């Protein structure tokens, strides 16, 4: 979600600037500016290395990949003008757009963008010493995994090559009909190899140490102060870039102060926390400026950590004993009142935001049947996990089985990102609700404020939690995009370390189920196997699904239906195609526009031959 900032000018000064064409239309020299305030700082501009959402938001606007999407979610040419694949979707060939330029942060032309740039980008990502957080996605390419693991050292054996200056070819490990949907992800972005070699480890550390081929150039980059994007005048599609300048202002209390800054005219977008949403809807002037956020394909869940690395005072070893008991996990699973939790974000229709599975509805389907309605996932998808009686039943079983093994109450460390007021409120609600239902004799949930910047690096990835609200967005159009984060070496909570699930080949049962699904190329069978794996993950209570993303309310001068749309990659972070509105959308205007967009999207998808 984007929130924007600029120092408010006095009305008389603004009027003067308008007379000087600063605020006129484009033909008279208008500078269209969008302003936000933020608290989570960007730590790197190295798009080939990062996997953090706010850094994706920067990458999306300064670097173009092979493809992009229109406002209805249909693939469009970007740096690739055309493409084709062989019959079994293992070889993909792209014809690149000629004349696209790499430029410096001062807008000076550095080189043409050519096919070798995509080869060099993937070489960097798959070189393990660079520690790219997205390398696992790129291993779809033939020998990508072998190169990453050092089994081969000659990158020419990896399935990517520049056939000529403007022809790029990928050879994949397996038939991959959804490969296009992976290409808007940063691991497939290009880089100029000469520049990368020259900069070495300093690549992406400053605005000068990165090249730009996208819609914007980073004009100012002052961490914990301000960053400014300006339109790239050499951009190949600059006619469709309508916002000239995007200004981000740092404030460690951004989540709290943004609504007031919006009302004062200092920012052009602000998330409206639940704590003040009633006030906005009960004030006629404010009511006309606030609307619902558009739902997205991020899935939210509570992860139970099987590799706790938090301080001794929170008794990580005791937690480890408890979490390895299935009945203990199931007691938490059935005790979480997700409606109460969602009231902190959506106070009016929280049930609409609930999600019972990891993969959201309407993501993929088989012959018109939604993936979440495949057996055995169907029953989970259609049943609320909250059940007081079951929660207490599993509690009694767990206490009996853990007698003499675990100390009660079990301390449950549950940190949150201090930059999110709603997350802070939700943590308090969940703590009180779980402890009230299950009893203070059973669990002691410890809510702890984590950093607003670097939360992933400092808390979640090192495993400094017992129970954690987490989220995941898809990277490509296949259920594997949602199951992979929980596999061995994946992103979340190390379920492969759960005791009692290792099979004869040394891998966990869940890992073997996912591997079997990945190996199946018949789409219907593939999705059934993934559904079985996901159902197993949830039924064993390794995770507790609870919501979809994009919930809550926002005051914004952006029309979300002008933006590029796709569940995959960095698409939703792009400003290209959007314009600054004179006034924000009301909720009534939003609902009307949403209905119109949904109808137009259905027609567009049908016309494109997509389901």
UniProtKB/TrEMBL annotation:
Subcellular location as annotated: Cell envelope
Keywords: Signal, Transport
Keyword Transport: yes
Any one GO CC term of the record: periplasmic space
SUPFAM superfamilies with a match to the protein in the record: Periplasmic binding protein-like II
Gene3D superfamilies, sorted: Dipeptide-binding Protein, Domain 1 (3.90.76.10), Dipeptide-binding Protein, Domain 3 (3.10.105.10), Periplasmic binding protein-like II (3.40.190.10)
One GO term of the biological process aspect: peptide transport
Residue ranges that the Swiss-Prot or TrEMBL entry lists as coiled coil: none
InterPro entries per record: Peptide/Ni-bd, SBP_5, SBP_5_dom
Family per record: Belongs to the bacterial solute-binding protein 5 family.
The protein's name in its UniProt record: Peptide ABC transporter substrate-binding protein
Organism: Lysinibacillus halotolerans
């Amino acid at each position: 979600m984007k929130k924007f900032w600029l120092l408010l000018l006095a009305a008389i000064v603004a009027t003067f600037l308008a007379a000087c064409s600063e605020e006129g239309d484009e033909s008279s020299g208008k500078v269209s500016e969008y302003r936000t305030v933020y608290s989570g700082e960007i730590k790197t501009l190295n798009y080939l290395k990062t996997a953090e959402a706010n850094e994706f938001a920067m990458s999306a606007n300064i670097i173009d990949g092979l493809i992009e999407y229109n406002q209805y979610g249909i693939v469009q040419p970007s740096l690739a003008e055309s493409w084709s694949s062989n019959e079994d979707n293992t070889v993909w060939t792209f014809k690149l757009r000629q004349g696209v330029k790499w430029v410096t942060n001062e807008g000076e032309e550095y080189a043409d963008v050519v096919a070798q740039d995509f080869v060099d980008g993937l070489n960097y990502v798959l070189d393990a010493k660079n520690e790219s957080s997205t390398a696992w996605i790129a291993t779809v390419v033939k020998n990508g995994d072998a190169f990453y693991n050092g089994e081969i050292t000659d990158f020419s054996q990896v399935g990517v090559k520049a056939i000529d200056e403007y022809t790029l070819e990928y050879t994949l490990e397996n038939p991959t009909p959804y490969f296009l949907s992976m290409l808007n992800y940063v691991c497939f972005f290009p880089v100029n190899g000469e520049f990368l070699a020259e900069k070495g480890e300093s690549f992406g550390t400053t605005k000068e140490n990165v090249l730009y081929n996208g819609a914007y150039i980073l004009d100012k980059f002052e961490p914990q102060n301000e960053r400014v994007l300006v339109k790239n005048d050499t951009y190949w599609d600059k006619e469709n870039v309508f916002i000239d300048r995007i200004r981000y202002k740092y404030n460690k209390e951004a989540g709290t102060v943004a609504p007031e800054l919006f009302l004062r005219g200092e920012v052009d977008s602000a998330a409206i926390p639940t704590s003040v949403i009633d006030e906005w809807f009960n004030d006629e002037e404010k009511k006309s400026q606030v609307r619902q956020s558009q739902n997205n394909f991020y899935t939210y869940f509570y992860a139970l950590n099987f590799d706790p690395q938090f301080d001794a005072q929170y008794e990580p070893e005791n937690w480890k004993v408890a979490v390895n008991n299935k009945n203990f996990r199931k007691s938490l699973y059935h005790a979480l009142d997700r409606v109460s939790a969602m009231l902190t974000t959506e106070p009016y229709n929280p049930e609409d935001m609930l999600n019972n599975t990891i993969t959201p509805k309407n993501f993929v389907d088989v012959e018109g049947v939604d993936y979440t309605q495949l057996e055995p996932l169907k029953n989970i998808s259609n049943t609320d996990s909250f059940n007081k009686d079951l929660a207490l039943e599993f509690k009694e079983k767990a206490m009996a089985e853990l007698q003499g093994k675990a100390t009660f109450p079990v301390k449950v460390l549950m940190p949150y990102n201090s930059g999110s007021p709603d997350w802070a409120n939700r943590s308090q609600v969940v703590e009180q609700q779980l402890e009230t239902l299950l009893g203070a004799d059973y669990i002691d949930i410890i809510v702890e404020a984590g950093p607003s910047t670097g939360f992933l690096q400092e808390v979640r990835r090192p495993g400094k939690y017992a129970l954690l609200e987490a989220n995941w967005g898809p990277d490509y159009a296949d259920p594997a995009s949602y199951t992979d984060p929980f596999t061995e070496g994946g992103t979340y909570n190390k379920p492969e370390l759960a005791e009692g699930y290792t099979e004869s080949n040394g891998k966990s049962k869940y890992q073997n189920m996912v591997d079997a699904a990945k190996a199946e190329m018949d789409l219907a069978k593939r999705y059934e196997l993934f559904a079985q794996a996901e159902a197993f993950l949830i039924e064993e209570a390794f995770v507790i699904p609870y919501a979809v993303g994009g919930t809550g309310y926002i005051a914004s001068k952006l029309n979300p239906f002008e933006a590029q749309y796709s569940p995959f990659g960095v698409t939703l972070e792009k400003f290209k195609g959007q314009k600054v509105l004179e006034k924000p959308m009301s909720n009534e205007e939003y609902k009307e526009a949403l209905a119109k967009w949904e109808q137009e999207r259905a027609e567009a998808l049908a016309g494109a031959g997509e389901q």
